[in-house]
Design brief:
Helices cover 37% and strands 24% of the residues. The strands form 2 sheets. The protein has a 7-stranded mixed β-sheet, with helices on both faces. It has a two-stranded antiparallel sheet with strand order 7-8. It binds S-adenosylmethionine.
Length: 251
């Protein structure tokens, strides 16, 4: 699971007291995974979508979690967070969608304490889902479609340069993978239609192309997966590669 990788690569002592801010955290994937493992941490999980935060708030109430706050915030303007107040910032597959990624990184830098660290996950180009979305959009709109936001930090050098420009030092970027398993290719739409990228693609299409998105996506996926063999559980494994970057605010 990518959240576990980002956390373990960024935080070396999981028992210390710390404040963790997750940005573009969606329904709280990272914070809900971590809150009972990092027992002395205070979590703030943020997202610019009020509906995501509403769902997260339901989880927080049901699980009766203390030391856990949620905030509706644009990651490019963390106005509710004071300068130099946070020990760790994270963004797993959230920052990659910001229109101004560098501004998002600068905001992470601003709110971190000196010596504080950030952990960010992005998709690599050879991950199955970004490739399938890209090829579907190319098939529907022609090959002129530029890189999707989902691949905005898929170049390791670009990723590192942006972190440097934002002020981070001791930058490390590692490639990790956790294949996504599906029973049948036909199950793919169940998984992808809840992915925010799916909605972004649909929104970018004219009405007549929206109607054939699913069919085109399935044709593309069938081609991409035609040589795929099944794993020992009898499932198809979709390649899922991510870059995990960590960086530090100088002391
Ligand atoms: C693919 S989801 C990832 C959610 C979660 N971090 C995870 O790992 O499952 C991307 C999230 O980024 C959020 N997002 C996109 N642009 C944002 C922005 N400018 N500020 C804050 N959140 C943003 C979306 O609302 C969405 O919840």
């Amino acid at each position: 699971m990518f959240s576990a990788d980002v956390l373990s690569q960024t935080i070396k002592d999981k028992d210390k007291e710390m404040t963790i801010l997750d940005i573009g955290g969606g329904y709280g994937t990272l914070s809900l995974y971590a809150y009972d493992k990092y027992k002395n941490a205070k979590f703030i999980s943020s997202d610019f979508s009020p509906s995501m935060i509403q769902v997260l708030d339901k989880f927080i109430n049901e699980l009766e979690i203390s030391n856990f706050e949620s905030k509706v915030m644009d990651g490019q303007n963390l106005e509710q967070i004071k300068d130099s107040s946070i020990d760790y910032t994270f963004s797993t597959f959230g920052l990659i969608y910001f229109p101004d990624i560098l501004q998002g990184m600068k905001e992470m830098f601003r709110v971190l304490k000196p010596g504080g660290k950030t952990g960010i996950a992005s998709w690599c180009t050879d991950a199955f889902l970004p490739a399938a979305f890209q090829q579907t959009m190319n098939a529907l709109l022609g090959n002129s479609v530029s890189n999707q936001a989902v691949l905005s930090l898929s170049d390791k050098q670009v990723f590192e340069n942006k972190l440097k420009e934002a002020g981070f030092v001791n930058i490390e970027i590692n490639r990790v993978q956790h294949p996504m398993e599906v029973q049948e290719i036909s199950d793919l739409l169940k998984h992808t239609s809840i992915n925010p990228v799916y909605q972004d693609c649909i929104n970018a299409l004219p009405e007549d192309k929206k109607l054939i998105f699913n069919e085109t996506f399935m044709n593309v996926s069938n081609k991409l997966l035609c040589d795929q063999t099944r794993n020992q559980n009898g499932k198809l494994e979709l390649p899922s590669y991510s870059y995990i970057a960590t960086g530090q605010k100088p002391l």
